[in-house]
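Give me structure tokens for this 273-residue protein.
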Amino acid sequence: MSPKPLNVELYAIGTEVVYGLTLDTNTHWLAQEVVRLGGDVRRVIKLHDEFDVLVDAFGESVARGADIVISTGGLGPTQDDVTAGVLAQLTDSDLIQPDEVLDDYVERRGLASKDDLNPTLIQMASVPAGADVLINGAGWAPGIRVPVNGTTFIALAGPPREMKSLFTDHVAHYLAELSPTKSASTRRLVSIPAESRIAPYMDAVMEAFPGSYVKARIADRRREGWTAVDVLVTGDGEVEADAMLDRVLEDFGVRLAVDDHTMDAYPEDDAVA
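Here you go.
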């Protein structure tokens, strides 16, 4: 039996995101990265910048048995940036300003000592005592990694550039080492113009290969009369995942050929990474 992939939940924190004032591109990007590293994204949720709302939502993730929860936003210096405080409450710990973060501020700002730091920066340095500190090389608010009753919470800054930097520097390798599975994916063109006509083939493939995911991109009209289809599989490591993808594509192609349909490569500039 194949090992179970990591159960991952994603939270975009920010009232401006919930109200549609700011487009949430963070969880879109994170979901792709988590899946690529072998995780299984089970929920993507937007939350208001409200302390009790976050406490309840994070507690529900723990109750559901999520392995990893990654949040973005709520680590800034304003009154509604409460993510660090919520994690401190959930871990029954105090908020502290670690020397490693303050020393990083002093060095990058070219200051003489920590005494020269302004109150806003000191507030942004706050993390729950005992948490792993993720230095933010693209900004100022550090990321946070802390366990809560079997669920590991990873809090990242909200600005996309900072979020991506924190994930790349501190989270990607952590997830890759922790995940018992890896994924492989590709995009193909199928010579059928309508999703309803492709659906029986996709369903048959997913039934034949449990855990595989085959989805038509109905808005993608890269080639007239053809439909783009994404195929994603998981396996026990990269080699097995790649081999499984080859088997799924072969099976898909055979099923299409029975009815005189074909599958072709998708232009590389838009292919799934």
